[in-house]
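Late entry, written up from scratch paper. The run itself happened at the end of the previous shift, but nothing got recorded in the book at the time, so transcribing now.
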Amino acid sequence: MPRYEPRRIEPRWQAFWDERQMFRTPDPGAADAPAGEKLYVLDMFPYPSGEGLHVGHPEGYTATDIVCRYHRMRGRHVLHPMGWDAFGLPAEQHAIRTGTHPRDTTYRNIENFRRQLKMLGFSYDWGREFSTTDPDYFRWTQWIFLELFDTWYDRDFEWTDAAGRKRRGKGRPIAELPIPPTIREEGDEALRRYQDRHRLAYQHEAPVNWCAALGTVLANEEVIDGKSERGGHPVTRIPLRQWMLRITAYAERLLDDLDEVEWPASVKALQRNWIGRSEGAEVDFYIGPDGAIDLEKGFEQWQAVRMGTGFPAEPGEDGRRQGIAAHEELARSHRKMFEFHPKGTSDGLERFDRLGCHLRTDAVAGQDGNAVGLHGEGPIRRGLK
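Output as recorded:
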């Protein structure tokens, strides 16, 4: 058997594939489109860094390429594109340091990544290549955002899907949101605020990891021991008004539709755990001044109101509702505690300010606490007296 010489053999056949567009994917219905069933295989697009490919890229791409070649040879109509997830902090920081426009470095890096991927001989349809920085691409992400902004989720809406299944819960135009008469009576501003509270894309003030040196917000995974993973700069936890997506409105739909996909049971279990549906109890604690209300009657009145109105849209001035591990709400509320107990709490609150930016809301390895001189009266404790 002749010796395999990749430097001689690979360039020859890769050039042959390019010249004849061997992996081009015709549009469905085209005269040269395969007659077999369609198959769309999508890889996770790489971020085109200046360092080029690393071993983790071809490891995953090789597996999907095997699948594509197998089904293509069996007559299926396979779409296997490649693109670039090109927006990122490294390009921004490089532009700041060197004065080079991020477009120049980004497209130069893309050319290097494309060259390296072609050397590996993957069966991509390079005619469908795109980058997330292309205006023809992100115009559609902007369109999706506008659609979300103009939509509210109706949990009770009943409809029939394309497969004939009866479903409950669907996004509807914000213009179809029922407006309570009391809100209409308050005027256009009240109407706008009510609609904004129901949009799938909405603004909300929430704590974020802010790095002043990098001039950006960082994900929890990008913060290590209170410093940025990139550069080791200090990171503080600050409230920031930002855009949020109400994906939790679709939690039940996401869970139900897992039964409709042919995924391994272990992957479905990961998805169910990520969605994180849970059922528990709500407990109300009074943290107002001692003796200000009759607790027995006060809790009964509060319970009656809660049963009729649900969770309050805005917390009242007589207290704050705290959930299990609700570090973010506590960070916003601790100044209210200080109003009730101004003496003996300064040290604790200052320490909370310093440590609060390092609390994680997803998984906390260890718990810590500090007495702030505030005590809440709850129905569970009352029942034990």
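The two ends are 88 Å apart (CA to CA).
(Scratch paper discarded after transcription.)
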